[in-house]
Amino acid sequence: MNPIVDDIENVLNLIVQQFKQYRFKPAYSYTGVKTTTQSMNDQYDAMS
Q1: What would you measure as the largest C-alpha separation in the chain, in angstroms?
Q2: Which of 14, 19, 20, 47 has the highest Cβ tally under 10 A?
Q3: Could you report the per-residue pLDDT of 1-48, keeping only the tens digit for each?
Q4: Does the global pTM surpass 0.90?
Q5: What dihedral angle (degrees, nearest 10) is formed by the CA atoms of 18, 43, 34, 32?
């Protein structure tokens, strides 16, 4: 598997766990997802 794909899968799994943990705080979880996705994009841009 592509290492970047593995990283994305790991991040998505973490996000899913955060959603389960913070289901009662959807605004917080949504912000966390946006921030994580943005940082992943930044890392990907830096590598390419």
Answers
A1: 38
A2: 19
A3: 689 999 999 999 998 887 777 665 555 555 555 556 666 667 677 776
A4: no
A5: 30
- Structure token pair of residue 1: 């598997």
Angstrom distance (rounded) from CA 15 to CA 13 = 5
Are 4 and 47 a contacting pair, CB within 8 Å? yes
Structure tokens at 16: 């899913």
How is residue 21 written in tokens?
Answer: 């943990």
Query: Distance (Å, rounded) from C-alpha 33 to C-alpha 29?
Result: 6
